[in-house]
Specification:
This protein is α+β, with helices and mostly antiparallel strands. Helices cover about 30% and strands about 35% of the residues. It contains five helices and twelve strands. Helix 2 runs antiparallel to helix 3 and helix 3 packs across helix 5. The longest helix is centred in the C-terminal third of the chain and has 23 residues. About 10% of the residues have low confidence.
């Protein structure tokens, strides 16, 4: 049986850079990290490389497989492994996903705050929301955004689901509770409409 894949830990790039790197493992004050989950903006892109800025610092990420399907200015979620070679620290990309909802930035900041990661040069809130409150806040935000998108694409006969998926990669996942709650219905296969 193959060994279990390590959990990708939420980190900031500044936190990673200040950690101790040995054998492709980063030692942080809050534990050992050998797989990371970083959310940031693509500020540079080369052939199979991306420079990501998460607001705390920047770092090069590299893909040794397919060209990442993001462009400069896109918000991206990167899951990968830290690597150090010839004094260069970078992340080897396992997953690179473009995100379109800016609400994920606020959500990630709250997740990091819950883990005790302090933002550089930022005032910390006096209280931190419970995870369930954060989750419901983001779900509400994403539900509102998909409903707005359906209305935008609906020319009278409904909005094509495939178009929704093109603009919002997690559309299928978001539509399910809306169908169950009766907020959205299927006019015909592949076409959805908001219940007014």
């Amino acid at each position: 049986m193959p060994p279990a894949r390590q959990t990708a830990k939420y980190c900031t790039l500044a936190e990673m850079k200040s950690g101790a790197w040995t054998d492709n493992i980063v030692e942080l004050p809050r534990g050992t990290v050998n797989r990371v989950n970083i959310l940031g903006v693509v500020v540079e892109k080369g052939e199979k490389t991306i420079v990501l800025d998460d607001g705390s610092s920047t770092m090069v990420t590299r893909s040794f497989e397919a060209e990442p399907s993001v462009a400069v200015g896109d918000m991206a979620l990167i899951v990968g492994r830290p690597r150090a070679f010839n004094d260069e620290k970078y992340i080897v990309i396992e997953i690179c996903k473009k995100l379109t909802n800016p609400g994920w930035v606020a959500y990630r900041k709250k997740e990091l705050a819950l883990l005790g990661v302090k933002e550089e040069n930022a005032e910390q809130p006096d209280t931190v929301q419970e995870p369930k409150d954060i989750e419901s806040e983001v779900k509400e935000e994403t539900a509102d955004s998909i409903i707005a998108k359906i209305r935008e694409l609906d020319t009278g006969n409904g909005a094509p689901v495939d178009e929704l998926i093109k603009t919002m990669p997690n559309a299928e996942e978001l539509l399910k509770p809306l169908f169950e709650g009766g907020d959205v219905f299927e006019v015909r296969p592949g076409m959805v409409k908001v219940l007014e």
